[in-house]
Amino acid sequence: LHVRSRRQRQMCIRDRFLKAAIIGAAFTISSVANAGIIFSDNFDPISTANWTVSNARVLGDGITEFYDGNALYFDGSGSRFAHTSGFDLTQGESISFYFRQGKSPSTKYFENTDGLSEAMDFSYSVDGTNYTTIFTFNPSNNNYNGSWQQFSFDINGAMLSSSTSFKWQQRDNSGSSYDHWAIDNVAITSAASAQAPEPTSLAILALGILGFTARRFKK
Known about the structure:
The protein is an alpha+beta fold. Helix content is 23%, strand content 30%. It is built from three helices and eleven strands, in the order αβββββββββββαα. The strands form two sheets. Strands 1, 3, 4, 6, 9 and 11 form a six-stranded antiparallel sheet that branches. The protein has a five-stranded antiparallel sheet with strand order 2-5-10-7-8, with no helix packed on it. The two termini are 27 Å apart.
């Protein structure tokens, strides 16, 4: 029969608390680091439940003209658009995405977009029907025309609702062989994520928890 001493019992209890503290700290770090991600899609594959799409397809994996794997690529004839389902954005958030449209000289996958009449409008809605333009991607602006660029927009004011959706829509196009554009890596992020501590701060917090626990059972 093995009988543990008082010291051994204390050490056993201490070890259990240290283990629990480590798991708790790791869970806290993981939870805080991932806080605020409401929706994200890199189209590898597309999250079909959250999109309504017209004249677009998932394309790009392995093709150097695309940013990162697949993108949502618009090359169909007729109206070209994509809009998300509605999200609860009442706390104030931000939305970011990568965007590319064709410019002269045209490439294999991105034919030149010919002026403001073929621009892409980025807009929002709080009722899923009426959309308000946030930004227009004017093809004549060489700051973002012809190459992949990341864009980020604050969600505030009238955009704060329990069912805010977003739409990307081209005003017009000349058919499937012309005026191409694409979006990638769409992310809707809550304000909480912007306040998440840096990894160093989280590590200090975890060490503090462990140190306090160890000191408590050192006696």
